UniProtKB/TrEMBL annotation:
Residues 1-68 form the HTH merR-type domain. This is MerR family transcriptional regulator. PANTHER family: MERR FAMILY REGULATORY PROTEIN (PTHR30204:SF97), REDOX-CYCLING DRUG-SENSING TRANSCRIPTIONAL ACTIVATOR SOXR (PTHR30204). It comes from Actinoallomurus spadix. PROSITE patterns: HTH_MERR_1, HTH_MERR_2. Keywords: Coiled coil, DNA-binding. The keyword DNA-binding applies. It comes from the Bacteria. CDD domains: HTH_MerR-like_sg3. Gene3D superfamilies: 1.10.1660.10. SMART domains: HTH_MERR (SM00422). InterPro entries: DNA-bd_dom_put_sf, MerR-type_HTH_dom, MerR_fam.
Length: 125
């Protein structure tokens, strides 16, 4: 199938498919006129790639996990699970850092509100 059909069937843009190829996540064959052609299996592959992106994984991480799909084995599965666990830990730390930042901002907002309220109070005198 051609790139437009794959894009439509997988629910992604043609631009995304070209990006996936640039990143080594997707492969195509080329016709003599240079048009990309994909197999039926690529629909499922693109859907899998989309799920990985939706989970917050980078294209580099997805490339590390894809061997589990391409050539399933216990070794590849273990490597993919380990890599996804590392990404989860990274995301958890990022969430914790964002929470700390939000808490600091809440403190600043409270100080600013208190200051604003003090401007409303009549001066003692």
């Amino acid at each position: 199938m051609r790139i437009g059909e794959l894009a439509a069937r997988a629910g992604v843009s043609v631009r995304s498919l070209r990006y996936y190829e640039e990143q080594g996540l997707l492969r195509s064959t080329r016709s003599t006129s240079g048009q990309r052609h994909y197999t039926e299996e690529e629909v499922e592959r693109v859907t899998f790639i989309q799920r990985m992106y939706a989970a917050g994984l980078s294209s580099r991480t997805i490339a590390e996990v894809l061997p589990c799909v391409e050539t399933p084995s216990e070794e590849h599965s273990d490597a993919a699970l380990e890599r996804m666990a590392q990404e989860r830990d990274r995301l958890s730390e990022h969430i914790a850092e964002l929470t700390r930042t939000r808490d600091k901002l809440d403190e600043l907002v409270a100080v600013a509100r208190a200051y604003r309220e003090s401007l409303r109070l009549p001066a003692a005198g």
